[in-house]
Amino acid sequence: MEVRLGVLIISRKRLLEAATAHAGLGAPLDAWYRIAKKAEWKNLAEVRRVCPSADAVWKFTVFNIKGNAYRLITEINYRTGRVFLRNVLTHAEYDKGGWNK
Questions:
Q1: How large is the average pLDDT for residues 57-74?
Q2: What predicted TM-score, i.e. pTM, was given to this entire model?
Q3: 25-33 long-range contacts, Cβ below 8 Å, gap at least 24?
């Protein structure tokens, strides 16, 4: 029997760096972190129960942060309960593409 207590987020450092680089982003990223840390997501449908705007884009799960002004790009391994943080981008940076290669 497997016992999991939330997900393991790798690496929170990306959130802290983004919060330093973008004024006003710290609180929204911290709120996402606290929610994700306690979650036991097994699929995208479970993610969307908590974060309805989350989208699957290729192998990534993309979260809208701070009223859709930023995108938090993650890879979620539902089997192991690990969330890998890949990027925090402004909406404009995300729309330019290239981040998913």
A1: 94
A2: 0.87
A3: 25/65, 25/66, 25/70, 25/88, 28/65, 28/66, 28/70, 29/65, 29/72, 29/88, 32/63, 32/65, 32/72, 33/9
* Interatomic CA distance for residues 18 and 85, integer angstroms: 11
Position 87 pLDDT exceeds 80: yes
Alpha helices in the chain (DSSP H): 13-21, 26-38, 44-50, 91-96
pLDDT of residue 10: 73
More confident residue, 64 or 100: 64
State the pLDDT at residue 3: 44
In the sheet that holds 82-90, the strands lie side by side as 8-10, 82-90, 70-77, 60-65, 55-57
3.10.20.30, 3.30.2310.20, 3.40.50.300, 3.40.50.11890: CATH of 8-96: 3.30.2310.20
